What we know:
about 280 residues, alpha/beta, BirA Bifunctional Protein, domain 2, globular, acyltransferase
Amino acid sequence: MSKEVWRYIDSGNCSPSYNMALDEALLDWHSEGKIPPVIRFYGWDPATLSVGYFQKVEKEINMEAVKEHGLGFVRRPTGGRGVLHEHELTYSVIVTEEHPEMPKTVTEAYRVISEGILRGFRALGLEAYFAVPRTEEEKQGLKSPRSAVCFDAPSWYELVVEGRKVAGSAQTRQKGVILQHGSILLDLDEDKLFSLFKYPNDRVKERMQRAFKSKAVAVNEVSSETVTLDMAKAAFKEGFEQGLGIELEPYVLSPEETQYVEDLAKRRYESDEWNFKR
């Protein structure tokens, strides 16, 4: 039986506004039936802090530190918390809610899509597995996160290695289409990450950073060999093909499509109204 063919886009490093606009455009085009489901890999230039759709920037984010570090800044169309996109492989998956393999609930769809990421980690020789919040305290933590930092706690079916989170993902559903995107950390500058958020005082910041070390880890801290970006791309491309039982076919945007994305990037993701609206 032949496998279903999805599109594969490797965008390389793009601006924060272009990255979010392209994810949104792919969602639109897929909802209109113009393209099949898509898996996309990308990076960020400059390194960027992205915040979740519902985060309150003024209350949670230290914008002075963002500027001092020369970082880009953008609000995602998906939920979740703050992510520093620096030494990582970022992925997005765009697929209709009606796809026969996609469960109806967000949590279960998350598990199915994340199977591709799980296989990618295993292709890199890492013993990754899904986190399932077991205790009542962990489940409550999902409802009311204590921290604005994304990698601070594994949520349902988040991926962990040696008990620590290695990939953070967020999902939105619009126009009958699932968009899930996330970060696979290759390396991490913890001090930089923690300088980007606001805390009641230094003691709280130190306590959170200490706790963070026990909850999150970058791939190259737990891998026996240094994983490069190219190695990660190859492993996760293969992982998605295996995990979702699909074949990935490269796709290049037409000049018209590129122009559409650039216009959307300017109109929405570069506007203060979008990025600082909450």
